[in-house]
Amino acid sequence: MNLLHAIVLAIVEGLTEFLPVSSTGHMALVSAFFGIEKSDFTKLFIENIQFGTIISVIVLYWRKFFDFKKLQFYVKLFVAFLPAAVFGVIFKKHIDELIGSPLFIAIVMFLGGIVLLFVDNWFKNPQIYSEEKITYKKSFFIGLFQVLAVLFPGLSRSAATIIGGMQQKLTRTAAAEFSFFLAVPTLAGAFAKSLWDAYKETPEILTSHNISILALGNLIGFIVAIIAIKAFISFLTKHGFRLFGYYRIVVGFIIIACLLWGKFQF
Fold first, then answer.
1. Across the strands, what pairs with 128?
2. Cα–Cα distance between 159 and 101 in angstroms, integer?
3. Minimal CA–CA distance to 102: which of 258, 249, 245?
């Protein structure tokens, strides 16, 4: 993986991590298109540039994350984070196998797009407009929806948690923002584990050059994610999920077609 590959992947990560379009599917497509080799460092890079997107959420919502007087906020995030953490550990082998199956990811991405076409009609008359009104019970149920994204790579963590929030009577905006908040402990946990695994299993890839590339990727992902989050909230409030559904269907179909016709080696 060269510097251009790192920049492109970081931009893709920043754009797609918080949108309901599956960053996993986009990473697979972009990696195949640019012919990026599957190496230990490539895997580490893709997993670790999420750190920059975590920081973007904290910066944008710093008042929420640094208001230590409101302990309930942190408890809600922990309650919502717990199901995915438990299932992630239990089904790690299953998840690793699915992540290695591009066709499975593409199919899930395609079917998820069909779901997004109808989401706005399924959940009408929301009652919760801000995080303060979310109960611990609702936080837990949103966390259960996040488990779906853990078990079915390509579904999109963002899509799963936003839909979970809307099912729990949150507005689209409130559901999206809680999804952003929940991403912080979830992605931070994944970041820490992948870095630790690399340190224990493949320490030779943690060279100063590779660490510099990781730092650049995180910086780019941070900047792009800030722009993407702001644009997403504005678009979602006005237009809903339908366009994202059509987009996922098209991209999912393209990946499936490329795989079946042997055009790309994912």
1. 170
2. 20
3. 258
- What does R_g of the chain's alpha carbons equal in angstroms? 18
Size of the chain in residues? 266
Q: Cα 172 to the chain's mean position, in Å? A: 17
Collapse the DSSP code of 170 into the 3-class scheme (helix H, G, I; strand E, B; otherwise coil) and give the result. strand
Q: Specify whether the CB–CB gap between 126 and 174 falls below 8 A.
A: yes
pLDDT beyond 90 at 77: yes
Residue with the two structure tokens 């929301």: 126
How far is Cα 56 from Cα 58, in angstroms, rounded to an integer? Answer: 5
Write the DSSP string, 56-122: HHHHHTHHHHT-TT-HHHHHHHHHHHHHHHHHHHHTHHHHHHHHT-HHHHHHHHHHHHHHHTTHHHH
Q: What is the pLDDT of residues 202-211, one digit of tens each?
A: 888 888 888 9
In angstroms, the CA 126 to CA 141 distance is: 16
Confidence of residue 93 (pLDDT cuts 50, 70, 90): low
Q: Cα–Cα distance between 97 and 101 in angstroms, integer? A: 7
pTM score, two decimals? Answer: 0.88
Cα–Cα distance for residue pair 145/150, rounded to 1 Å: 9
| pLDDT (tens digit per residue) in 140-188 | 999 999 998 888 888 888 999 999 999 999 999 999 999 999 999 988 8
**Residue 236, CA distances (Å) to 59, 160, 164, 217 in order:** 21, 15, 16, 27
| pLDDT tens-digit series, residues 50-68 | 889 999 999 999 998 998 8
Q: Give me the amino acid identity at 136.
A: Y
